[in-house]
Specification:
binds zinc ion, Rossmann fold, alpha/beta, disordered N terminus, 10 helices
Length: 248
């Protein structure tokens, strides 16, 4: 009886019974929505803005000093990144950061389609890809969270773009949480943490690697190395947000 009564409650009443505030800006929501976030906050994320960007990894800079004559930054020149190109929609702050947290830590999976549209906007128009590969979580973390946010975002982009998705990578070791580690520490922590699965047919393929946040790039580098080891010809990274701001 309780269940059918519940279903009969109109949406307007539902929000009266369960009043909700926007989980980002805390203003009261005026209607029932799939996610407790107001329209203003959903449309608040802004694309990356900077005077100059590295032509390869898209790192933002205030002047051209760190870039060489090809517009490429020092980290890319050092070969430390391992991937060939990187793009992100916006900076990992403000509403975008809150929305990513809601998806990742509060399990608001209905946010994924909306956020994936921002990724679509960041995708370079002059590149083509044979396959999309999400950055995997270690199975223990995936099991605890119930999903992999990178996989959710990747499957949306795959659907919009008509590019097949493949879980070609697996995490071979559980790593300690990267937060609080230095950039070099992150690289050491994550090195060799990924391997390509056998028989994924990656030889010569142009791979679009997808993750939610680009922090120091250490995770994506380790993934890119594993993909290249398995024969991938080109690895491009696409993330929703970029935490790193290098200005020198
Ligand atoms: Zn709001
Ligand atoms: Zn760069």
């Amino acid at each position: 009886m309780a269940a059918s009564t519940f279903r009969a409650i109109p949406h307007g009443l539902f929000s009266l019974v369960f009043p909700a505030d926007c989980r980002v800006c805390e203003t009261p929501l005026d209607g029932f929505t799939r996610v407790p976030v107001c329209l203003g906050c959903l449309s608040a994320p802004k694309p990356l803005e900077a005077d100059y960007f590295c032509a390869s990894c898209n790192a933002p800079f205030q002047n051209t000093f760190p870039l060489d004559e090809n517009g490429v930054c020092g980290l890319c020149r050092s070969g430390l990144l391992g991937f060939d190109r990187a793009s992100s929609f916006g900076f990992y702050d403000g509403a975008l950061r809150s929305l990513i947290h809601l998806l990742k830590y509060s399990g608001m999976k209905p946010l994924a389609p909306r956020l994936s549209l921002l990724m679509d906007k960041a995708l370079p128009i002059d590149e083509r890809y044979d396959v999309i590969v999400p950055v995997p979580l270690h199975w223990k973390r995936r099991w605890k969270r119930g999903f992999n946010q990178a996989e959710l975002l990747a499957s949306e982009v795959s659907r919009h773009r008509g590019i097949p998705i493949s879980n070609a990578l697996r995490r071979t070791k559980a790593t300690v949480n990267q937060a609080g580690l230095t950039s070099a520490g992150r690289r050491r922590n994550i090195a060799g943490a990924f391997a390509a699965r056998e028989g994924m047919g990656l030889t010569g393929k142009r791979v679009l690697l997808i993750d939610d946040v680009f922090t120091t790039g250490a995770t994506a580098s380790a993934c890119a190395r594993a993909l290249k080891k398995a024969g991938a010809g080109h690895v491009s990274l696409l993330t929703l947000a970029r935490a790193e701001r290098r200005f020198t």
